[in-house]
Amino acid sequence: MNNILTFNDTICAIATPCGGAIAIIRLSGEDSIKITSKCFKSANNKSLEDAQSHTLHYGSIIDENGKEIDEVLVSVFRAPHSYTSENATEISFHGSQYIAEKILQTLFAAGARQATSGEFTQRAFLNGKLDLSQAEAVADMIAVTNRAQHIAAFSQLKGSYAGSLKQLRERLLHLTSLLELELDFSDHEELEFADRTQLRNLTDEIKNHIESLTKSFSTGEAIKNGIPLAIIGNTNVGKSTLLNVLLQENRAIVSDIHGTTRDTIEQITQIEGLTFRLIDTAGIRETNDAIEQLGIDRTYQKIDEATIILYVTDHSPNEQEIASIKQIAKGKKLIFVINKIDLHSPTDTLSEPHVNISALHNTNIDELKKAIYEAAAIPEIQENTPIVTNLRHYEALKHALDSINNVKKSFNLNLSADLIAEDLRACISYLGEITGGTITSQDVLTNIFSHFCIGK
């Protein structure tokens, strides 16, 4: 059965940034090869409409007045063997913005229209080339900035996450089928197709799987959005200097004047393949300056948002200071950073996690980065390990978890099969929201007949 949808129009758009040596314009739609052929003069005088799929053709793009725009290479893809499952072409040309615009104008005049944001991937989804989670992974792949993000996004794009959800849904569907089969034979009260002990065990397994996926969101969110790290401390202890060192650029103003940093500064950096959102804060001290006090208030706000706290000081903190900072950073990973060891002896007696550094002279910065990475406590991401990085998926999983917990309660209360089946269907539906699939009565019916020989 052919599941490819037929769209009435052909879309086109620039697929790569202009300004480089080569740029690409992509077309997709039933008439994409025909439209491209109208604007293309082949070097061997052969028509693109006769070209086989996955072939390259050298020639020129000619505008509606017959004027040559540029020498190009055209790639031809015939349905269903393309990204969108539709007929498609890709035009490679010299990467000038002017040339790109001229080619687009020519394609528009020949019958194509400008694609909207994400429309190529949307067509790939609607044509069954990708499920919804894979379609979302395309955007994640484009946005990756570190190794962990790449592994998580690529794994989702290749379908390991969707495969995990598919297995869950199949097991839930089997459960539902067994219970609904009992309802079909409800006039035989003694008939029980579904062994309740086995069903309870299967429900527990499914619950644990969904729970594991749900818990992975904290890791996925940290990988995707970065781990917030606040640099706090008194004024003039070297917080801004440390920020600049970690960023390897002069982002924050460094001065001996107390209260120089009056607002929070946020920047992104990579440490051991993880993204960290570094937040340089105003120095904590008593002040009569209203503007500086606003900055200090924001410091406490950023402490609440952070996962890791670097408390920077230029001396060995006493017990009272340690207790005060631990209270401020309660519930966070706290690292004491003893700065300016070029001016005083390193601290060796502090029992709290700490690193002795000189931000000014770049001393022990690698040791500090190692401590930061370890404090993040992000497990090593394996290529085929499903990691939830999308808030929409997380919300759907939470609802699915609630539904499967309701199933467990119903089993414990010995409720009727129809009530249990209703919660199972809700769970299946929530999991289906993630991949964009749906379960119909026909699915249940097909599953019943594949497992049982009714009436034989």
Structural descriptors:
17% strand, disordered C terminus, Rossmann fold, 456 residues, alpha/beta, Four Helix Bundle (Hemerythrin (Met), subunit A), 6-stranded mixed sheet, 13 strands, 14 helices, 7-stranded mixed sheet
In short:
The protein has helices at 32-39, 97-110, 119-126, 132-143, 147-157, 160-184, 196-225, 239-247, 290-305, 319-328, 365-376, 391-412, 417-435, 441-451; strands spanning 11-14, 22-28, 40-42, 55-62, 68-77, 88-94, 113-114, 227-233, 265-271, 274-280, 308-313, 333-338, 354-356. It is α/β, with parallel strands linked by helices.
CATH architecture classification of the largest domain: 3-Layer(aba) Sandwich
Count the helices. How many? 14
If you compute it from the alpha carbons, what radius of gyration comes out, rounded to the nearest whole angstrom?
Answer: 30 Å
- End-to-end Cα distance, whole Å, is 29 Å
Low-confidence stretches: 252-263, 285-293, 447-456
In round numbers, the mean pLDDT is 82
Beta-strand residue fraction: 15-25%
CATH homology group of the largest domain: P-loop containing nucleotide triphosphate hydrolases
Principal-axis shape equals flat
Helical amount among residues, as a percent range?
40-55%
Question: How many structural units, i.e. domains?
Answer: 3
Strand order in space, largest sheet: 3-4-5-6-2-1-7
Series of H and E elements: EEHEEEEHEHHHHHEHEEHEHEEHHHH
Assign the structural class, choosing from mainly alpha, mainly beta, alpha/beta, alpha+beta, or little secondary structure. alpha/beta
Largest sheet: 7 strands, mixed
Total strands: the figure is 13
CATH class of the largest domain: Alpha Beta
CATH domain fold name of the largest domain:
Rossmann fold
